[in-house]
Write a structure and sequence with these properties.
Number of helices: 4
Distance between the termini: 83 Å
Order of helices and strands: HHEEEEEEEEEHEEEH
Oligomer: single chain
Strand order of the largest sheet: 7-8-9-10-11-1-2-3-4-5-6-12
Structural class: alpha+beta
Largest sheet: 12 strands, mixed
Radius of gyration: 25 Å
């Protein structure tokens, strides 16, 4: 036969235990971040992880709110509600500056690709979205030579304006509408660290993706941080401005700082 609690303390303990059991039963099960991204109607962002000869390791975040690029030097932010401009962010010294939207990702600088003579090939890169590779050529049809191989994804869950903007940054005008470029292997010139510092033309990965994933939206990625506005480009790079002037490092960026 059940015997009731023999003291007020035991009664209090029993009430507390029953309350906790009721809360445990009523709480919904915890869900992982990936499950949140797959839930119907959930806000998501597409994340491209990879590396390139100019950017080093890089992650690109794309959503209906904008594009965020984070590499080993700094980060950049383009927001859909301010499509004509972008922010360069120095996350080390907490400074930022505004630049034209057409020039904020110069380390992804592309040559003049010609899409009219492109040929389609299967893509080696595999992910959850259909992919293919466009082989681009330079020169006239009879004397053309391969210039680049660009990997595109189809059916990605992004607004057309965001896809079009990322196309303009990575590969320029003329890319297939609505298809997201995620990889560029190109024949181009670059300077090498050598005694003569000669610029040589060679095949290189402007952007080589290692993974493309759909994740739950992190709104903080697409909001301007509370950084100090840099006085000039030298201040942006070196925090105190040093002895450098803006024109000394203009070639690192496109356009003039507002």
């Amino acid at each position: 036969m059940f015997k009731g609690p023999s003291s007020a303390g035991e009664k209090t303990y029993l009430i507390l235990l029953l309350t906790l059991l009721g809360l445990a039963i009523s709480l919904p099960p915890a869900r992982s971040k990936n499950n949140d991204a797959k839930a119907p109607g959930a806000a998501t962002m597409l994340v491209i992880s990879g590396h390139g000869v100019r950017s080093g390791g890089v992650r690109i975040f794309l959503s209906s709110q904008g594009v965020r690029i984070v590499d080993n030097m700094m980060s950049a932010l383009w927001m859909t509600d301010k499509p004509q401009e972008a922010l360069l962010l120095n996350d080390e010294n907490k400074t930022m500056m505004t630049v034209p939207a057409t020039g904020y990702a110069r380390r992804f600088h592309h040559p003049a690709f010609r899409f009219e003579d492109a040929e389609t090939e299967p893509a080696a890169f595999k992910c959850a979205y259909p992919s293919y590779k466009l082989v681009l050529y330079a020169g006239k049809r009879r004397n053309k030579h391969k210039r680049a191989e660009i990997t595109f994804l189809k059916n990605v869950p992004l607004p057309p304006a965001v896809i079009a903007h990322w196309q303009s940054v990575l590969v320029g005008a003329g890319a297939p509408a609505g298809h997201l470029p995620v990889g560029v292997y190109q024949y181009s010139g670059r300077f090498h660290d050598s005694e003569d510092n000669i610029k040589r033309r060679e095949w290189m990965d402007l952007l080589k993706p290692s993974r493309v994933s759909l994740e739950a939206l992190d709104k903080r990625m697409f909001l301007p941080p509370k950084y100090r506005k840099a006085r000039d480009k030298a201040d942006f790079m070196f925090a105190d401005g040093g002895e450098l002037k803006s024109h000394d490092i203009d070639d690192m960026f496109a356009g003039k700082v507002k």
